[in-house]
């Protein structure tokens, strides 16, 4: 047999097998490179998505802060407008309220005088008392209230001393012993302090 021919016959299948192996390796390497490339693309996309998401979150937080600031500004504006409206209303109606309060004072004075003297009829006394209560109710429906102090101790914020009675008892110092005229307030605004008589400790 021809040695060259035998060598060619042997090298033919071997060469073909080596070529297949080479192609397989190349295909495997190409597949690995494709996967790596795809992974890099996915990572790049995720990184871009995360950046966009972070930017979106920042935008939302900024908008929420702006909305809260705007809401707080509107609340302050509405509150100031409401206070201004109340002040204007009080300035317009204060003279009327004071006149009605003075009328209540007058009726209460007549009522007490009649009780002390015993000269007035029960019908007139009852009428004066009823009218006084009705006027107080009318004022109350318009935001004007009687000042009611929870304690018998003098309160300079809503009371005014008209007379002082000396006392030797320290426990009676600044005690209110008599209300001369009722005090009134419009919501949180003092219209007239309660006029009182107090005891003052003098050793």
UniProtKB/TrEMBL annotation:
Cited Pfam families: GrpE
Record keyword Transcription present: no
Coiled-coil annotated spans: none
GO biological process: protein folding
GO molecular function: adenyl-nucleotide exchange factor activity; protein homodimerization activity; protein-folding chaperone binding
Source organism, top-level taxon: Bacteria
UniProt KW keywords: Chaperone
The name this protein goes by in its record: Nucleotide exchange factor GrpE
Organism: Thermoflavimicrobium daqui
